[in-house]
Each structure stands twice: as structure tokens, then as C-alpha cells.
Amino acid sequence: MAKVIIHATMTLDGFIARPNDEIDWAFKYDADEMVKGIMAEIGAVVMGNRGYISEDALPYGGQIQVPQFVVTHKPRDPATIGGLTFTFVDNIERAVALAKVAAGEKSVTLLGASIYQQCLNAGLVDEILIHLAPILIGEGIRLFDNLKSGDTELERIELAATGRITSLRFRVLASSSVDQAA
Predict the structure, then answer these.
(1) How far is CA 9 from CA 17, 38, 40, 129, in A?
(2) Contact 108, 41 (CB under 8 A)
(3) Residue 110 sits in a domain of what CATH number?
(4) Which of 12, 85, 88, 173 has the fewest CB atoms within 10 Å, counting from its CB?
(5) What is this structure's pTM?
(6) In sequence order, which residues have a C-beta less than 8 Å from that of residue 34 and are 6 or more positions away?
């Protein structure tokens, strides 16, 4: 069955987007060989409603023609935009389960800081792949801002410097949450 991967390009100072959700700085790194490799692995995408904006902002620029699952508080009928089918689901666990079935033997990639954090907190993530970009943007949306307390053990399974980025790939081994009420 499909594995679930956090796939993000991150600035050296820990941001995946500017405060207004712009990721214009990241596009200059998309031609990297490692980025192309992960794109070939993708069988489905899970994103938040905030990431589902318009045809001008299709996931992966519309280059990956796979099922897209949007986690939202207001599910609606599926939509097709730019050749991509978006299914709207009101539950992160259900969205990931549907995406895994749709992906088959390929991977499910997650898009968006909130989705990354929700999936990590729910124990749904198998791997984390970060393309570390040599840029500092000073403010914005951080990759791991709202994780539950506790340790998440990782095992590095790949480290590569290709083109202008350094890519880090980790397997998620175990999470231990700390009850903050204790």
C-alpha cells in the first residue's frame, strides 16, 4: 500500500511560504533532479482547503495528473480543474485513507503546513522529504510550527546535494506525545 510523505521545499530559516502563502521563491529550485524523482513517485495528493485556491495555483503546477484530496470543513461535490480531480473530505484520516487507495503502489504526498502537522500529530506520516533551499526569507509559514508535545523519532534514509538544494529524507519511526495536562 502507498506510503504517506511530507514533501516540502523549505528555506534555510524554516519557512515553506511567505506570510501571504506565496511560494514564488521555491520555483527556481523545482528543476532539481531530486525534485523530479519524487514527482515520479506521487500517486495522490492530500492538501488543505487553503491550498486549494484556483487554477493558477494547481499543486505541482498541474504537472502531476493524480487524484487530489482536499481536507475542508465544508465538503462539496468533486471539482475538475486543469485536468485534475479534487475530492473534498472533512476528515484528515479519511482523506489519507482515500488517497492511499487511489495511489496504489505509489506515494501519497501531503501539501501545506497545517496538513503536514495534522498528519504528523495523527501518526499518519511514513516519510518526510525536505528540499532545503539556500535562501532566507525572514518570515512566513513554518514547516513544523504546531506539533503536539513529545518526540518524533526519525531515521535518515537519504541525504543528497543536487543542483542548488540539499535534500533530506527521513523515515518516521515513532512518536511519543506528552500529555500537557499532566
Answers:
(1) 9, 12, 16, 9
(2) no
(3) 3.40.430.10
(4) 173
(5) 0.86
(6) 131, 160, 162, 163, 165, 167
